[in-house]
Each structure stands twice: as structure tokens, then as C-alpha cells.
Design brief:
By secondary structure, the chain is an all-alpha fold. The protein is built from 6 helices and no strands. The protein has helices at 6-26, 41-54, 60-65, 70-74, 81-97, 102-118. The longest helix is centred in the first third of the chain and has 21 residues, at 6-26. The radius of gyration is 14 Å and the shape is globular. The N and C termini lie far apart (48 Å). The mean pLDDT is 97. The structure holds protoporphyrin IX containing FE (HEM). Residues 32, 35-37, 42-43, 46-47, 50, 54, 65, 70, 73-74, 77, 79, 83-84, 87, 112, 115-116, 119 line the site of protoporphyrin IX containing FE.
Length: 127
Amino acid sequence: EQSNVPFDIIGEKQLSELVDVFYSRVSQHPDLAPIFPDDLTETARKQKQFLTQFLGGPSLYTNEHGHPMLRARHMPFPITPARAAAWLACMESAMEDVQLTGELRAFFFERLKQTAYHMVNRPDDEG
Ligand code: HEM
């Protein structure tokens, strides 16, 4: 029987490609690159773990790092509405690059959008 779990539909390989392409775009984005570490290897590894569980797969992130508390973990970084939009634009392009399509893409992007705006912790003029 086929699974309806989004993680099973996207699969580990495509999710991993998506995250790698996403951070290569982030590293080239003028508003995002300055707030990220130069080496994004560990960031990408954690994001793969997080998105696996976000999409209903095994709780890889929580097993290693504890409760995600994403808003709190982002507090040290100035996340403005403009940076949330930039993050989402990088993700939308990455989805295009790895040819993630259809209902899964729409569902995934919608949930990321909600999460991204929830991370906003500074107004644009304090970024
Ligand atoms: C970590 C920025 C949205 C998930 C980080 C880090 C930055 C950042 C600067 C620290 C990187 C590091 O030190 O390795 C942003 C910005 C966002 C955003 C500007 C725009 C809204 C999101 C969203 C998610 C997310 C929407 C999840 C769907 C994570 C995770 C980590 C992380 C899982 C690693 C946390 C850890 O250290 O354990 N983010 N982020 N972020 N972000 Fe975001």
C-alpha cells in the first residue's frame, strides 16, 4: 500500500538535494548570506534532519538536538519580513531546480511559508 506521508513521497534523496540547492542559493543571497555561517555543511545537515520530521518522517532532528523550538533558536539572528521573503524565494527556486512539483510542493511550500513568517523577530528597519 502506498504511503500518504509527505516524507515518503518526496524521499530522502530528493529532500537532501533540495536542501543542498537551497543553501547554495542562500549563500549567494545578499540579504541572507551575511547572517549565516560561511560553512553551511552543519546547517544543511540539521535542516535535512528537521525537514524529515517536519514532513512526517523519523524524528532525526529531535533525537539529536531535542525539541526544535525554532523561533527561540532563530532569536539570535535578525529575521526581518524581507529576510523571510528571501528565504522563501530561495526555497521556491530550489524546488524548481530539483523539479519538485504538484500537490506535495504546494503543501510543503505553504507550511514553510507559515513557519518562515513565524520566525520573524525584527522589523525590516532593524535588520
Ligand atoms: C538555523 C536563518 C527560516 C529551520 C538557522 C540559522 C540561521 C537561520 C541564520 C543558523 C545557522 C547555523 O548557525 O548553522 C533563517 C532565516 C529564515 C529561516 C533568515 C527566514 C524566515 C527557517 C525555517 C525553518 C528553519 C522556515 C524550518 C522550516 C532551521 C533549522 C536550523 C536553522 C532546523 C538549525 C537549528 C539548529 O542550530 O539546531 N536559520 N531561518 N529556518 N533554521 Fe532557519
